[in-house]
Every structure is written in C-alpha cells, then in structure tokens.
Amino acid sequence: MDTAANDIEAVQGQKLSKHHLANPGPLGFGAFATTLMTLSLSMMGLRAVSNQTVFIANLCFLAGLGLLISAQWEMVKGNTFNYTVLAAFGFYYGGYGVLLMPPLAVVDSYGGRTTEYYNAFGLKVWSILNFFFFVASLPTNMINVIIYSALELSYIFNCMGNFFMANTDVTTGTTLVKVAGAFGFTSSLAGFYMLCHDLCQQTLPFNIPLFETSRLFSRPRYGVKSM
Q: What residue spans of the chain are helical by DSSP H?
C-alpha cells in the first residue's frame, strides 16, 4: 500500500510540476521572428542595407541562445517537433552570426564575393532540412504551415539567386534574393502571430485562432469495431 501511495504522489507531483512550467514558445518564436525579419528586410534592400554585420548580436544572442534555451524547455515538456525546430534554428542563426564576424574573414577567404563564394553560399542545404519541418507542420495548424512553407520558398529563391550571381547574372540574382527576402518577411510575420497567440491568448479579451489542421490528417483506425 505504501508503494502504491508513493507512486500516486510521484505522478501527481510530476503533473503539478509540468503544470507550473512556463511556456517557452513566446521566447522561441519572438527570437526567430525578430531575427528573420531583420535579415529579410536586408535581403529586400530596405534603406539600402546590404551589410549584415550589425545583425550579429541578434543572430548569436537573441536567436542563437534564445532559441536554444527555449528548445531545452520544449524537450522537458515532451514537444519533439518544437524542440527539434528551435534547436536547429538556434544553431543555424548562431552559426550564421559567427560567419559574419569580421575577424574570421570568411568572405576574404574566398577572395571576396567571387563565383566560388556565391556557389558555396548557394549550396547550403537548409531547404532540405526545412522541407521536413514543413511536412511535419502540416497536421499542426495553418500558422505553422505558413511559417515553414514561406521559409522553404525563401531558402530556395536565395540559393537560386546566389547561383545566378555566381554565373555573373547580378540583376537576376539580386531580384531572386529580394524575392527570398519577401518570403522570409512573410514567415517572420507568421512567427510574430504565433508569439502573440502564445503570449497574449490568456490576457486579451478575444480569441487568437491558430486554425488547427490536425483533423485533416487524422489516421483511420483499422480493426476497431464501434459499439
């Protein structure tokens, strides 16, 4: 009897501790959306900003550390999808910020923005990894679908733009990079919407819907007879 009572208390304690855990989603989506929006606006050429060195702080700290911290708490809560996405983007943004650090002279190692540099930049296969994020997001909600589908298109157009620049077609390459920035901007807006939902859903006097899609992907149950 004592063993059974202890087991019940342990389970209740676990439920209580999980119930009191803060939601790590707002920090993750806020860091993701803020960093992606700044990069996207730069890709679109807003106010003639092309040098992204000033974004190192966002990339390494807000996105890099912020996303990784959020990911660990998503893991504690048992959310595999959120943990994988947040951790992956945390390392991606942090690594991208490191590449922009002037002392590393990554661009200089290619002799400037040469054909090899643009080809190497275009060969990044993040579009493949993000494609699986997009597929996994389909049975969640429409906001997630918008985030990862727009991001997928952003990666694809960015790679295409760099390949055109490698072929010395700067005009087409620049246009494609701007298109990539527009899709990235769309993804960041959806990320801010998700931030608003997670952070303000319980405080605002109205509902912030996510437009759930899980019912569209429900698996049929075979071999189960109805009563």
A: 2-19, 25-43, 56-57, 66-76, 80-99, 106-109, 115-122, 126-137, 142-166, 170-200
Q: SS3 of 141, please?
A: strand
Residue type, 139: P
Please list, in sequence order, all residues whose beta carbon lies within 8 angstroms of the beta carbon of residue 75, skipping any fewer than 6 positions away.
83
Per-residue pLDDT of the chain (227 residues; tens, 9 = 90+): 455 555 445 445 555 455 577 889 999 999 999 999 999 999 999 988 888 889 999 999 999 999 999 999 999 999 999 999 999 999 999 999 998 999 888 888 988 889 998 998 887 788 999 999 999 999 999 999 999 999 999 999 999 999 999 999 999 999 999 999 999 999 999 999 999 999 988 788 888 999 999 888 876 555 544 33
Which residue do the tokens 């700067």 mark? 170
